[in-house]
Structure formats: C-alpha cells, structure tokens
Amino acid sequence: MGNSWYKKSMPKIRTIKPHIKKMAIAISKIDGVKSVLAWGSYAQNHNKPNYIIGDIDIIAVSSFFSEDFISIVDDQNSPFKIASSELEDLGFDPRTVEFTKKFIQLEKYNVDPWVISSDDKLLHWGPMPQEKEEWDEITNEARTYSDFSIGVSREELHKVSQKIKDKWKLTYDHYVNKFISDMPRGWYQSKNHISEILSETIRII
C-alpha cells in the first residue's frame, strides 16, 4: 500500500487519494468482491485536496448473503480460529469467513469496512447503531466534544501540527467508543435503504 501515509491521524485528501485506487484493486482481488465503492467523508470531499479525513469508508459489493456475514463474530468462538474444513459443519460459510479475514485487514489503513450483501443489505464491520441517523448523531457529538476539548475545530485541523491532530482523533475515538465498547466485533446490519446509500457513494473500481 505504500509507505506510512496511513500511520498519521487525520491526513489530507491529497495525501490518501493516490493510494485509494491501489487499495481498491487489492480489495477487488478478494474472492467474492464485485466492485469497490467509497462512502462517507471521502466520497463527499474527494475533490477537496486539503480536507482532513478521519476514517476512509470503503464498501465492498459482495456475492455473499447477509446472514452469512452476521453469523461471523470475532469472540472466543470466532470462526477465524476454526479450520476451514470444519466451518460449514458449524454453520459458517467458508468463503464469507475468508473474505472477512482478508477485508478487515484493511482496518490498519484507517479503512472503515462496509459490505453490500448479495441480498442488498448494508453491513459494517464493528459495532454501530442500526440506523445511520443515530450513528451520525453520535459522531457529530464526538466532533463537538473534540473541538471543545482540544480547542481546535474539525475545520481547522489542516492548519495544526500532527500532535494536535493525534490528540483530536484520540478524543473523538474515545467518545465514540463509549457507545460501542460492550458490543462484540462482527458484522452489523444497517436498516438504511440500499438505494439511499448508493446515491452517496463513488465507484472506485
């Protein structure tokens, strides 16, 4: 994926943009991926070079069923710890498990992994409210809290040092995590209609 662009908190669009296509190509090579979309703040601001971005929302349009995704929970009984030959007998779809293992590795690049299932459901890897509006409310509160705590607004982050950006992101993440800390890692289904989501995305590959 390149050098260490992803190790810094809150990079500018122009910093990550050259890497997005490479990332999408890597995702498209995972078995079961039909196309790769960008969503969220990157999709909304990809033509603003100096816009500061937190997580990169990437959606993989997949050929796997939503219930097979939802069955995957990364806890003490995680299917990631089970031999591939035994997964089907235990109720898991081996291809969906393998897809998940590869796709969520991209979290290290500040990617927020989403999928659209074969039955047109939107799912997110990691805890979140089922309604996008509720999630938006939490993240907006987190931004307001970070702005106040750090003394720098979200819009001013492109002017400040990396140390300040790191503090702002740490404060933001801490606020959000209060709402999801007791929920296990896994695929969570959004109740939002898929046509609404697709209208807010840009296709990368």
Write the layout of secondary structure elements.
Layout: H1 13-28, E1 33-39, H2 40-45, E2 56-62, H3 66-70, H4 84-87, H5 94-103, E3 111-116, E4 122-125, H6 132-150, H7 162-177, E5 187-189, H8 194-198, E6 202-203
Parallel strand pairs: 2-3
Antiparallel strand pairs: 1-2, 1-6, 3-4, 4-5
Helix pairs in contact: 6-7
Shape: globular
Query: Which sequence of SSEs, written as H and E, runs from N to C?
Result: HEHEHHHEEHHEHE
Task: Provide mean pLDDT, rounded.
Answer: 91
What order do the strands of the largest sheet run in, or round the barrel if closed?
A: 5-4-3-2-1-6
Largest sheet: 6 strands, mixed
> What is the domain total for the residues?
2
Helix content: 25-40%
Question: How many helical stretches?
Answer: 8
**What is the beta-strand fraction?**
5-15%
CA-CA gap between termini: 16 Å
- Radius of gyration, CA atoms, in whole angstroms: 17 Å
Structural class: alpha+beta
Could you name the ranges where pLDDT drops below 50 across 5 or more consecutive residues?
none
Question: Total strand count, please?
Answer: 6
How would you characterize the overall build of this protein?
The protein is of the alpha+beta class and 205 residues long. The chain has two domains: 139 residues; 50 residues, no CATH class. It is 40% helix and 14% strand. It is built from eight helices and six strands, in the order αβαβαααββααβαβ. A six-stranded mixed sheet has the order 5-4-3-2-1-6. A hairpin with a 5-residue loop joins strand 3 and strand 4. The model has no long low-confidence stretch (mean pLDDT 91).
